[in-house]
Amino acid sequence: MDIKSEKKELERKLKPAGTYIDSLSDFADLLGTIRQAENAAKELLEETAVAPRAKETAVAPRAKETAVAPRAKETDAAPRAKETSAVTNAKEAPSRSDDQPAKKSAAGDEPDSAPTVTEAQPEEKQPTVEELLERLDALVGLSNIKQNVRSLINYVKIRKLREEKELPNPPLSLHMVFMGNPGTGKTTVARIISELYRAIGVLSKGQLVEVDRSGLVAGFVGQTAIKTTDAVKSALGGILFIDEAYSLAPDVGSGNDFGREAIETLLKLMEDHRDDFIVIVAGYSSLMERFIFSNPGLESRFNRYLIFEDYNSDDLYKIFDSMCVKSEYVLNDEAAEFAREHFRMIYDMRDENFGNARHVRNFFENIVTVHSDRVSALEGHTREDLTEVLLEDLKNAAEM
User: Fold this and answer.
1) Which of 46, 63, 82 is where one domain is finished?
2) Which residues have CB under 8 Å from 90's CB, separation 6+?
């Protein structure tokens, strides 16, 4: 169609709206404007159509990654699930026969299903009965205590074997009384016993919770029972070790005392948790007898007594020597002889307040203090200066 024909057609369409074209130049301008508008509209439509496709293209990789992620997670989880299954079935599955190889040798095959040692073992390895008995034997002195503990462990073992054979057992109370002066190893032995009981299955956890009167008795009515109950709860599955337990029993004529409430609460809880809870009370021999006889319930529940005798002078020196070796302090011959004589003297002069190993520890700490004062005044400290303990160090420490 030529320009004139297009002009007539356009005039026909525009005349109803009241628009007229006066010349060909006006028509050409109008036609060019319309075509520019059409081209602009077409370009806009194309851009609009391209934008969503570009957006889809940009989103697609992320969508793909999202779809792949669960599969990757499942792939990572698969070996762990397989290992868990292997650990569960390791005990149940019989030994593989020769026609059932444990693993494939070709590359890319499934890994060996045997559990790793890390997963099969607990986080912290618990000591065995033999290891604990060796630890007991390594203690200085206490020969009668060591024999009593071994007899007690043997007795409990046989009781468990009789139970497995459905044989009757006499009533058993494992609550104990430790009687002796301070520093005779009562707490150390109690800790070993708690672990021994766990190792042979008498206790589920084997922890040792140490308390004294202040850990059980409160200052107001009604609070002692709560405080004692909390202490017992913390020791369930193990042993509650009550040091200086005689302080819970009031003297005759002393009136009301919250220690009596602690004893009554303790006795009830001992009965309620008798299958997985043990109490050991400790203190001076004479005072512990008064404590046990202060309540009929105590006398019936505590029927095992371990007497911790004082260390003799040779035992005291062995304890002292072990402290020196552990801390790398070396005594010359004169100093060593002075130490032996010192322990013989304090053993012969001991009274009811004799500290046993506590005295040895105090003496050793005094020696370290005196030695530090002397060596600090020297110049150019050698290793020998820092480790050698002289006779004068021990003499000055003994005077302290």
Assistant:
1) 46
2) 114, 115, 120
* Residue 72, pLDDT above cutoff 80: no
What's the pLDDT tens digit per position in 23-61? Answer: 555 555 555 656 666 676 666 666 655 554 544 444 444
Same domain, 163 and 279: yes
Counting Cα atoms < 13 Å in the Cβ hemisphere of 105 gives 1
Count of all residues that appear for the chain in the document? 400
Side-chain half-sphere exposure of 279, counting CA atoms within 13 A: 25
* Res 12: pLDDT: 61
280: which strand partners?
Answer: 176, 241
113 assigned to some structural domain:
no
Q: Which helix (H) or strand (E) holds 293?
A: none
CA 261 – CA 216 distance, rounded (Å):
10
Tens-place pLDDT, residues 144-166 = 999 999 999 999 889 889 988 99
pTM above 0.85, yes or no: no
Task: Name, in order, each residue with C-beta under 8 angstroms of 194's C-beta and a sequence gap of 6 or more.
Answer: 203, 206, 207, 208, 238, 239, 278
Q: Within a 10 A sphere around the Cβ of 362, how many other Cβ atoms? A: 14
